[in-house]
Amino acid sequence: MSAEDHTLQTTALVNEAYLKLIDQRVVGWQNRAHFFGIAAQIMQRILIDHARKHLGPQRGGGKVLSLEEVAVVSDERAAELGGTR
Is 60 left (phi over 0), alpha (psi -120 to 50) or beta? Predict the structure, then answer.
């Protein structure tokens, strides 16, 4: 997998952040720092969502497994752990 497959390009990040920022209807921008703070939070959320979308299937796609499904223990190992099988 190449870098282009799993990372968000800078221009795409800025574009998505811009679209979310202009969609804000009721924001009373206090100052420049406030604007940059909101922009940084939006970019962070975009990056996290992008990573979850692209890394999720490799990690089971968000499927939740029960302890019984993942805890495969041999009879010998179960005795070591204090359980009976």
Answer: left
